[in-house]
Design brief:
- This protein is α/β, with parallel strands linked by helices.
- It has nine helices and 19 strands.
- Helix 7 (177-194) links the parallel strand 8 (158-164) and strand 9 (200-202).
- Helix 6 (142-153) crosses helix 7.
- Bound molecules: pyridoxal-5'-phosphate (PLP).
């Protein structure tokens, strides 16, 4: 059935191997793969479970972790919840999550209680906000960080597994030697104060990779040559780099990764020659926006059966470079096939590579089928 995602498990597996060479071999970091970008697709998870390079499998949603915790744990790897937990999900967390990320002591206390009921010790990682201003205890509030660490140390059913930071998400702040060094410094202070050894100092997501391989990354003007990962960072959490091969700090492609492991295929349901300019008074489109049209004369226009309800038009690129996306509505995308001569007919399949936003929407749409290349 169309529309469908073609998920190339072999290419994703190649990406794991390449990323492991960077993060583990060159960067001395453990490898955490984040599965939310493909909505914890089980074929992908089974592949991850088999790869010896993968140490942790993480997601932001407890439902996703629940769906695969057995597969991951049976393979000797740990599950990680990377979104700060809701108070309402602590009972589920202590059952299915091996390490959970936290920034609120009230929640950690609730986890302590839930873990006691479950008869386990729950590993937690404290998130530190280094300036991206999403989750975490603000790095300048060292007293709060150390106080929280001491309180966790005294808890019976919670273990302080480590600290971490998330960058390049809300504030779009790029990881640098300078800001990540603050995380390492804070880890040292926590260890000195509590006497605990922190297992994990997690230095971010796909935007941190360039710090390990900065001399091997494709050069773009803005990317600094001499930035290095500070010693003491021992984990990275990779989603987009794994799924799409992207370095998200400077928007380059990570060498030797596949960027087309996930593709969208959609079918042409109408193919006609029509003018490029709509006829009549222009109001607003199906999404309440005032459209702008360029007069290109008569065009060959195709409608494919997938729409804004399923994907993000700005986050998909036709594989055939002659095709242009003109726009769309909830259920239709209109393509300009004028440059394609007579190469397409009704019923043909148009293929797209996808960006992160488009991929997220496509995997969560119940109208999009999936097939796998293995
Ligand atoms: C806390 C956290 N860590 C890691 C990731 C992975 O980010 P990326 O896909 O940029 O590697 C995300 C987002 O998915 C996140 O929220």
């Amino acid at each position: 059935m169309y529309p469908r995602l073609v998920i190339d498990i072999k290419k994703l597996e190649d990406n794991v191997k390449t990323l492991a060479e960077i993060t583990k071999d060159d960067g001395n970091c453990s490898l955490m793969i984040v599965t939310k970008g493909l909505c914890a697709d089980l074929e992908m998870v089974k592949m991850l479970a088999k790869r010896p390079e993968v140490d942790f499998v993480a997601d932001s949603r407890i439902q996703n972790i629940k769906s695969y915790s057995k597969i991951v744990r049976d393979a000797g790897k740990k599950t990680v919840l990377i979104r700060i937990p809701m108070l309402s999900e602590v009972d589920e967390i202590v059952k299915h999550v091996d390490v959970c990320f936290n920034s609120e002591m009230e929640t950690v206390r609730a986890i302590d209680k839930a873990a006691a009921k479950e008869g386990k010790v729950q590993d937690v990682l404290l998130m530190i906000d280094l300036g991206d201003l999403r989750e975490g205890i603000f790095f300048e509030n060292e007293d709060e960080i150390l106080k929280d660490a001491m309180e966790i140390k005294d808890m019976k059913n919670v273990n302080l597994y480590g600290i971490g930071v998330n960058l390049t998400c809300y504030g779009a702040i790029i990881p640098k030697h300078e800001n990540l060094s603050k995380l390492v410094e804070i880890a040292g202070k926590i260890e000195a104060k509590t006497g605990l050894k922190l297992e994990m100092v997690s230095g971010g997501n796909s935007s941190s990779i360039y710090l390990i391989e900065s001399d091997k990354m494709p050069r773009i003007g803005r990317m600094p040559k001499d930035e290095k990962m500070p010693e003491g960072i021992n984990n990275l959490r990779l989603g987009e780099a794994f799924l799409l091969g992207n370095d998200t700090a400077y928007e380059t492609e990570i060498p030797n990764t596949h960027h087309d492991a996930i593709k969208l295929q959609a079918q042409i349901v109408e193919l006609k020659e029509k003018p490029s300019l709509p006829i009549g008074e222009v109001g607003v489109d199906a999404f309440g926006e005032k459209p702008y049209y360029e007069d290109k004369g008569i065009m060959k226009r195709a409608i494919i059966a997938v729409g804004k309800q399923d994907t993000d038009l700005g986050s998909m690129t036709p594989v055939d470079e002659r095709i242009e996306i003109m726009g769309g509505s909830s259920d239709h995308i209109i393509l300009d096939l004028t440059a394609c001569n007579d190469d397409y007919k009704l019923g043909d399949i148009i293929e797209f590579t996808v960006g992160y936003g488009g991929m997220l929407k496509l995997v969560t749409s119940p109208y999009i089928d999936r097939i796998y290349v293995k």
